[in-house]
Structure formats: structure tokens, C-alpha cells
Amino acid sequence: MSKKESFIKGTLILAGAALLVRLLGLFQRVPLEHVFGDTGNASYGLANNVYLMLLTIASAGIPSTLSKMVSEKYALNKPEEAKRIYQAALMFGAVSGLLITVFLYLVAPYYATNIAKVPEASVAIRAIAPALLLFPTIAMMRGYFQGRGNMSASGISQIMEQILRVITAIGLAFVMYGMGYSDKWLAAGASFGSVFGSIGAFGVMLYYAMKMRKSDEGKLTLEPGITTGTGTGTGGANLPFKRIYLDIFKLSIPIVLTSLTVSAVNFIDGSIVKTLLIDHIGEGPAEQALAFLTSRAQMVAGIPPILAIALSTSLIPVISAAFVKKDEVHLKNQVTLAMRISILSGLPLVIVLGTAAYSVNGLLFKSLDGYGIVGFLTLMTIFQITMMTSNSILLGVGKPYLSMVNVMVGIVVKLAASFALAPVWGIYGIIAATGLCFLVITLLNLWTMKKIVPFSLMGNRWVGFLLTVIVLMGAGYGLNQAGIQMVSIMPARIAFFLTCCIVGVAVVALYPVMLVLLRVVRKDELSGYPAPLRKLLSPLMRLQRSGQSGVAK
Predict the structure, then answer these.
(1) Rounded Cα distance, 406 and 258, in Å
(2) For the residues 133-155, what does the mean pLDDT come to?
(3) Does position 123 have pLDDT exceeding 90, yes or no?
(4) Per-residue confidence (pLDDT) for residue 191, from 0 to 100
(5) Which distant-in-sequence residues (6+ apart) come within 8 Å of 154 by Cβ?
(6) DSSP characters for 335-370?
(7) Packing angle between helix 381-396 and helix 427-452, nearest 10 degrees?
(8) Residue 146 and residue 72: Cα distance in Å, rounded?
(9) HSE of 66 in the Cβ direction (CA atoms, 13 Å)?
(10) From CA 123, how far away is CA 537, in angstroms rounded?
(11) Whole-angstrom Cα distance, residue 327 to residue 265?
(12) Of 26, 197, 228, 488, which one's alpha carbon is 20 to 30 angstroms from that of 339?
């Protein structure tokens, strides 16, 4: 298997795991949303947002850096140094996990009461805090295994984590509900499921660690002259931790600040929604808006980016190689393809979930309220997709600090726009500020990328692309409005399910046809697309008239 094939296979493994984890998370949140009231949903959402942001900080972006450093050491036949780096990362993970857990446990009441304005959430936040003891270490182990080319360990550990988390969260919440516990304690019980998830994920990583160690020892036995990094060499032992940490943090700080974007935005929203809205709409409606945002909208909006980012990321190593070789033509084509693929592969789900938000909301959740919040945030996800892809490209061409600066500008815009728009548009103003944040980061990234390579995002395809978006959104919305009329002749959830299916099938079927007919995707560029997209689009190319069009046009 070639390196390119191996990388794409690894990317697909991780993407598949991420998709399954997201679906399991959806399976978890739906029954919990039915058990919780507004206070429980708000508390559980806040606990998860705080947890995810602190987890990113606790691991400090080291897994990605560790993967890069370990793969380089093995490529240079220095496995003993790779092991030394791994040991340093594990120490950092253990210490940071302990410190961040204690920190979160202590500050939970202050944050919940004085910042988020949901004092009941402090119990849920404290319940989820112990999960941070193990997860930084797990993150380091995942980074090491990815550096060794083992993507399965990371994928399986994520799946095991989510399975145990779902079972425990739902089980505890329903048992406590039956025992008559209040909303805040139900949210705490569900949040504690993450602790069991961390234990399961750690167990999987330990299993793979022992398996890899036996494999390394077997290679050493068969080929005594090889230094495997299992403790036989002296070069790695002499590598000082101070130097390792300097190298790691030099690379990881811009990565962590960049990777924090989405979780930081979710954390900001959870922290400011009630504060900004309470004086305008009252405490009850403000808490309800927060519950809809954190327990419904953020969950649904997290689905579209998964496949789009995985597909575009498969081109990043090619981009890095072209940049190092100073092959500007190839670099231009690959950057263009990466951006286009991420947009084109993410757009159908954005349109389906956005235009059918009323039916999605009615199908999954206990009330129809809040469907506008779900739909609007999901539509804003297209800018999240372009932001994440362009961030990855900047990392691929060795410009992580520029990406970091652009993200910081976007966060400032998010805060300013939230405070400016919330008094006018309420919760929709805050969501608009989120979309504006992602858009600003994307535009700054594109501007930065164009200074490196003069690529074209859509070129002369903008008219066809925008027409495709308009037609599909109109079709999706129209079919949703027609479909929901079925509630008068059948049970509501069945009507909503059928409507979601109709909108999804129609948009997904019509989308590639319009892309080909309007020449947004062209025959002569298919060879550069990942195999799944080639298989989908190739049969449709007979609909397209012959013509010349380079990939970068």
C-alpha cells in the first residue's frame, strides 16, 4: 500500500469513527433531552462545553504535534528518541489532567453562578470533571499511535468511549429520574457518564500499547541489530525533557489555539446567552434559549463538518509535499481542490438539516420549539467547514502562527458581534455572530493563503454554485413545508421522519446533477478528487457538454 493510500485509509478510519461517535452522541442526547427540563438541558450542555474546551487546553494540541514528531523519528530510524518524546508527553498529560480536574472542580460554582447564570449547572460541571484525569493521557497515546501509523487504536478507543458514555449517561439519568431527583442532579448523573467513557477509552489504549510493545519486542528478537525504542538504545535516554517540551510547545501552541475555535465559540455562547438575553426576554425564556442552543442546535450542527473535513484533510500531505518542493502549479491545484471538496461535500447535509430543521426538531426532540435555532446554527456550519479546512491548509504549508492570529481576530469579532446583535435579534443575533466569526476567519485564511499561492476558490463557477445553493434550499424548504402537512393524517413523528427522508433524498439526488449541469464540477478535474467522490460523479459527466476547464479556474 502506498503512503498516499495508507494516509487516506487512516483518514477514512478516523472519519468513520468520528461519524459513529457523533451518531452515538445523537442517540444519547435525544432521550436525555426528553428526560431533562430546560434547566437540565442547559446544565448538561454547559458542562459538556466547558469540559470539551478544557480538554483541548489540557492536551495543549500535543497529540497532533506528537504524531508529527514520532513519525519523523521513526522515518529517521530513531525509535528510542520517539519513545522518549512519548514518555515526556505522557508525563505532561498526567500532570495537566490532575491540575485541570482540580481547577474545574473548584471554579465550577463560580462559573455556573456568576458567568453562565445557571447556578444549577455547577453540580453537572463537577460531575464531569474527573473525566479530565485520564483524557489528556489518552490524547497523548492517540497521538503516538497515529505517529506510528496505527489509526485503528484511536478510532476504536473513541467508539468505546462513546458507547460507555452513552450507556452510563442514559442509564444513570433514567434511574435517577425514576427515583425523583431534580433536573440539576439528572444532568449531573448524565455528565458523570463521561468518566466511565474515559475509563473505557484508557483501557483500549492500554491494550494497544501492550500489543505494540510485544510487536516491537518481537522485531528486536528477530532482528537484534534494530533499535526499537523499547529501552535498548541510549540516544533516546539522553534526550532531555526540557528540549522535548520546548520543541513540542513551539509547534503545539498555535495548533491548540486554532483547534480551540469551535469549542471556544460554544463555550462563549454557553457563557453569555443568558447574560445577554435575560434583561430583554426574561430569565425563563433566556434559559430555554440556552437549552435549545446547547442541547439541540450544537448537536445537530456538529454533523455536517465530519465528512467534509475528512475528505479535504486527505489532500493535506500532498499540499505539504508540493509546498516543500516549491511546485507552485501542483500546490495551486491541490489547495483549490481541498477547499472545493470541503465545501461541496459538506453543503448537502447543511442544506438538508437546515431547511428541514422543523421536521428534524419534531422527530428527535420532545417539542417543536427551538427549530429556528437549530436551522440557523446548522446553516452557519458551512462557514465552520471552510474555516477548519483553511486552517488545516495553513498548517500544511507551515503557517500555523498566521492561522492562530486569524482565529484570535475571529473570536474578538464573535464577542463584539454577540454583544451588538443580541439586543436586536436575541438568540439569532448570537448565532449570527458565530457565523460571522467563522466567515471572518475563513476570509483572513484565504487572504493569507493567496499570498502564498495564487489559487482560485471557485473562479468562474460562482454563479453555478450559488444557483445550486438557492435551488436546493428552495427545494428543501418547500418539500419540508409540504411534508409536515402529513401530521394531520398520521402520527407526528412518522410524518416528521418521512419528511426528513423526502428532503434528504431529494437534495442528495439533485445536488450532484446540478453541480455537473452547471459546470461547478468538471470532468477533467475528477482525477484529483478522492475515490468516493469520483465514483459518485463519474456516471453523471455524460450530462456535461465538452469543454476546457482547469481545476484552478
Answers:
(1) 9
(2) 84
(3) yes
(4) 93
(5) 14, 17, 142, 145, 146
(6) HHHHHHHHHHHHHHHHHHHHHTHHHHHHHHSS-STT
(7) 30
(8) 12
(9) 29
(10) 51
(11) 36
(12) 26
Range with the lowest mean pLDDT among 29-38, 193-202, 437-446, 492-501? 29-38
Looking at residue 116, the DSSP 8-state letter turns out to be S
Can you give the pTM of this predicted structure? 0.77
Task: Give the span between the Cα atoms of 205 and 141, in whole angstroms.
Answer: 7
Cα–chain-centroid distance for residue 111? 25
pLDDT (0 to 100) of residue 18: 67
Kind and range of the H or E run holding 280:
helix 261-281
527 contact partners, CB below 8 Å, separation of at least 6: 534
Question: Nine-digit cell at 270?
Answer: 454557553
Identify the weakest region by mean pLDDT among 57-61, 294-298, 430-434: 57-61
| Residue 66 contacts residue 144 (beta carbons within 8 Å) | yes
Closest C-alpha among 359, 38, 365, 392 to residue 183: 38
Lowest model confidence (mean pLDDT) among 190-194, 220-224, 497-501, 511-515: 220-224
Write the DSSP string, 282-339: -HHHHHHHHHHIIIIIHHHHTSTHHHHHHHHHTTHHHHHHHHHTT-HHHHHHHHHHHH
Exposed / middle / buried, residue 212 (Cβ in 10 Å: 0-12, 13-18, 19+): middle
Q: Which residues of 177-206 are buried (b: 16+ CB within 10 A; e: fewer)?
A: beeebebbbbbbbbbbbbbbbbbbbbebbe
Output the pLDDT for position 237: 57
For residue 548, what pLDDT band results from cuts at 50, 70 and 90?
A: very low
Secondary element (H or E) of residue 533: helix 531-537
Q: Among 67-71, 126-130, 173-177, 490-494, which is the least confidently predicted range?
A: 67-71
DSSP secondary structure letters along 37-100: -HHHHHHHHHHHHHHHHHHHHHHTTHHHHHHHHHHHHHHTT-HHHHHHHHHHHHHHHHHHHHHH
